[in-house]
Amino acid sequence: MQQIRKKTAYAPLGPYWIANFDGDGFIRFCAGLAWKYSVTKRHYGRIDLGRYQSILRDIAFSDTMDVPESVDVILLRLRLCDGDEDVFAYRAPLRDFNFRVNLVRFLVGGCLVLLKLDQRSVDDVVFANCRIRGRNGINVLVAPAQAFEEFIEGQKLIERNDRLSCFLDKQNRHPHAQ
């Protein structure tokens, strides 16, 4: 993820090609993360994956299983401004329905992951061109963080909670800057 943040820091908004990126390997990581949240306790954020729970488990724990067409990932680099290489938040997996498909969405390493769990195709040309299954090299969609709920909700939380805001401000300081 660090390489993606670095390479897209000044990229124009829209699809950005990242060569030599193992799409299926990344899907295995995403499958493992979503599966783990499907077997955790409710108060830790358990999600219901339905029939995809066993499929994602099998994808995550197998190096040889082909990723089925019903499972794919679209990766978005959510950037705060030009030159942004930072991570502004993490977000646990959450079920969603968007672009006419069932998804699990989560924020990790400064990137929004849309894990498609559906037989149907994504109903958006730009997103369809950014799917990563079966690819060695991917299009990452560079987008403004401010347009996504992952940023908006975190911003609202910080604005409502002065103690959280002060804590986060301290975390963002470089340790050698003082």
Describe the model.
- By secondary structure, the protein is of the alpha+beta class.
- It has one domain.
- It is 33% helix and 28% strand.
- The chain contains 6 helices and 6 strands; from the N terminus they run αβααββββαβαα.
- The chain has a 6-stranded mixed sheet.
- It is globular, with a radius of gyration of 17 Å.
- It starts with a helix and ends in a 6-residue tail after the last helix.
Q: Main attributes?
A:
single chain; 178 residues; alpha+beta; 6-stranded mixed beta sheet; 6 strands; 28% strand; disordered C terminus
What is the fold's blueprint, element by element?
Layout: H1 2-7, E1 14-22, H2 23-38, H3 52-60, E2 71-79, E3 91-98, E4 101-108, E5 111-117, H4 125-128, E6 136-144, H5 149-160, H6 162-172
Parallel strand pairs: 2-6
Antiparallel strand pairs: 1-6, 2-5, 3-4, 4-5
In whole angstroms, how far apart are the ends?
28 Å
Task: Give the helix tally.
Answer: 6
Biggest pleated-sheet summary: 6 strands, mixed
| Order of strands across the main sheet | 1-6-2-5-4-3
Q: Uncertain segments of ≥5 residues (pLDDT<50)?
A: 174-178
**Number of folding domains?**
1
Using only C-alpha atoms, the radius of gyration works out to: 17 Å
Broad shape? globular
What is the structure about, briefly put?
The protein is α+β, with helices and mostly antiparallel strands.
